[in-house]
């Protein structure tokens, strides 16, 4: 490549990708320092940095603060998922949103929920079941457990007016959580709530959220058939 | 809060979250400048910046370069999804990986695939169907279409030795893509390939990837029953 001080970071990115693809830089190998690359390619160090970051975001380089930048042994694509509250997701599609509370009780959770919330067997939890609707049609069934010791305000919340999904986002800032996506066949109650055939394939998300070491809540969201979750890579 | 120059960014984050939750800072409102917050809270501007970034990553603040930082009107949680090649995903679970090519042909794609690849009706595509196995058991069925004009090297690739999934990651750096997650009922051929009952609920990912304005490839990955995709928020 010729020295060219107006070289764009995209041009540098293309050259970096070429070297990785052509195995001039081999998987696992350290790549030259930014300053060295800047000299070699005749551009600024900022431009090299911007290009390497883009390639790293694509998962083809691994950058460690002190250890330098290596060609990834196992390239990993990264996707970013935005998870809005369900009301906003529906309104963003231009549809009218409504929510219908099905049941609310303090009760002993089943073993699977207890395991997710790491709670003792005799600890009662707030169990809230409700349906999110889009343009009057079932959209997602929210099956939520909240630890009332960790979130005492939840006892006073009026879940006939606001879904736990939205109430928690607005009232309980939390530190972290994990999330799983899968598919299940609709059971008879779920099929009735979501107005679909029993056995229909449903997209499911399960989320458990905590603050520090304290588990706050776990939820299963069962979406009506044909729901698709979109994102970009 | 007392002035305390050793205040951690986590303490500042907690204070920011408290103000949002208690509506001292209302949804949509501009928050004070970093320098002002640093003075008020008695910490460095770097600490304030680190804290605001963390809260923004949680989706509760919106930061715009020139317009300043606002309390989000519609909080959105952000999750990051790592998408490794399937071989690595399986090996990371400690299972032996294998891949079996089912078929390979250049043929006219069905309308849904044509739409995703934005190709004319008479344009033939490379169609590769194969099965990823974990410990000898079906893991995911890869139904892949590649535009051979956009990726001519694919014509020479030996997809009986390497899956298109892995070959593409290693050979074709691409600029972007979109991805959708959903659930479908297994059809008879799919059920046979994945060794499950017809009608079983399967988790599906569909990805279409491009470089510039050029569509390269689209794939449907059908995972065997009980597959779960995990991530953190």
From TrEMBL, chains A, B:
SMART domains linked to this entry: HTH_GNTR, UTRA
Alphabetically ordered keywords of this record: DNA-binding, Transcription, Transcription regulation
Top-rank taxon, per record: Bacteria
Pfam family for this entry, one: GntR
Gene3D superfamilies named in the record: Chorismate lyase-like (3.40.1410.10), Winged helix-like DNA-binding domain superfamily/Winged helix DNA-binding domain (1.10.10.10)
SUPFAM superfamilies: Chorismate lyase-like (SSF64288), Winged helix' DNA-binding domain (SSF46785)
Single annotated GO MF: DNA binding
Record-annotated HTH gntR-type domain positions: 6-74
Matching PANTHER family: MANNOSYL-D-GLYCERATE TRANSPORT/METABOLISM SYSTEM REPRESSOR MNGR-RELATED, TRANSCRIPTIONAL REGULATOR PHNF-RELATED
Protein name: HTH-type transcriptional repressor YvoA
Species whose genome carries this gene: Pseudoruegeria aquimaris
